[in-house]
Amino acid sequence: MDNTIVSNPRPGVMLITLNRPKSLNALSRALLGEVAAALNRAEADDVIRCVVITGDERSFSAGADIKEMPESDIPKFAESERLRGWKTIERFPKPLVAAVNGYALGGGCELTLLCDIVIAGENARFGTPEIKIGIFPGDGGTQRLPRSIGKTRTMMMVLNGEPIDARTAKEWGLAVEVVATERTVERALDIAASIAEKSPLALRMAKADVLMAFEKPLDESLSLERKMLLWQSKDHREGIAAFAEKRKPSFTGR
Ligand code: CAA
């Protein structure tokens, strides 16, 4: 694990720190593989209930590793193990929080789009500069950006390639909060720790339900939501009992 640092700074929370500072945390195959491996461990570990991904103060991630591109042709680049890494992130069922300082460009911006909650530091810059190197966002950006910020803002980012600052990212909905750069990770960890106290089962269902809104027609997703809500869990009974007994619930994920 040379390209990431994985830690457990709060109960129930895994922190994945991208650690290729010399390349501004460019998403090499190896780095993506390590993120995917950490997420697979987080998924299998009942103790981990929420994951935070961050970079460093200068850069969350400057995108796909451009230096890996010429080695292979683009179809091979796009279809290789990189894609498996992206799929793992995309399908990760537990809450994923991004703490973004500095550059979130290209694949780095696309990575934030796969996170459920994005906290931006004041120095954060979100952008899709691929057009400047003769390509366009190919890790989900052309599809997820319009769903997140609408068509014309997406076109502005994708066709022009210039980044937007943290305040604009918040105004457009790419980030939910902007905080002082040195506070970004702490704030993300606080949110993750609070999420980690909730029922893991309800969290998983809530995340799946919200994501359905982007994938399915409304009548289908509404009926699936209703079905999932009717599902009786021990955690639901525990939540109601704890409320009545004026105590903190103790959720088990069943
Ligand atoms: N891939 C590989 N290396 C990268 C990189 C990237 N995406 N971004 C930066 N680096 C490397 C630089 O090559 C440089 O390395 P050296 O010191 O060995 O030369 C180091 O990181 C520091 O970068 P700069 O000296 O360029 O730093 P700067 O502060 O002057 O500029 C920057 C910062 C504006 C982010 C600039 O580095 C830049 O434009 N990077 C490329 C951003 C980009 O185009 N990202 C999209 C990639 S394609 C993609 O993600 C999508 C896809 O769908 C396939």
Description:
The protein has 254 residues and is α/β, with parallel strands linked by helices. The chain has a six-stranded mixed sheet with strand order 1-2-3-5-7-10, sandwiched between helices. The two termini are 33 Å apart. α1 links the parallel β2 and β3 (50-54). α1 runs parallel beside α3 (81-91) and α5 (141-149) packs across α6 (151-160). The chain has eleven helices and ten strands. The protein binds acetoacetyl-coenzyme A. The site of acetoacetyl-coenzyme A has 19 residues, from β6.
Task: Note the main attributes of this structure.
six-stranded mixed sheet, 254 residues, binds acetoacetyl-coenzyme A, 17% strand, alpha/beta, globular, four-stranded mixed sheet, 10 strands, 11 helices
Gist?
This protein has helices spanning 29-44, 74-79, 81-91, 107-113, 141-149, 151-160, 166-172, 184-196, 200-212, 218-230, 234-244; strands at 4-10, 13-18, 50-54, 59-61, 96-100, 103-105, 117-121, 125-127, 164-165, 177-179. By secondary structure, the chain is α/β, with parallel strands linked by helices.
- Quote the average pLDDT: 94
Question: How many runs of DSSP E, i.e. beta strands?
Answer: 10
Bound molecules: acetoacetyl-coenzyme A
- Kindly provide the radius of gyration, computed on alpha-carbon positions and rounded to a whole number of angstroms: 19 Å
Query: What percent of residues are in strands?
Result: 15-25%
**Outline type:** globular
Largest sheet: 6 strands, mixed
Which runs of at least 5 residues are low in confidence (pLDDT < 50)? none
Structural class: alpha/beta
Please give the alpha-carbon distance between the first and last residues: 33 Å
Number of helices: 11
What are the secondary-structure elements, in order, as H or E?
A: EEHEEHHEEHEEHHEHEHHHH
Biggest sheet strand order reads: 1-2-3-5-7-10
Measured as a percent range, the helix fraction is 40-55%
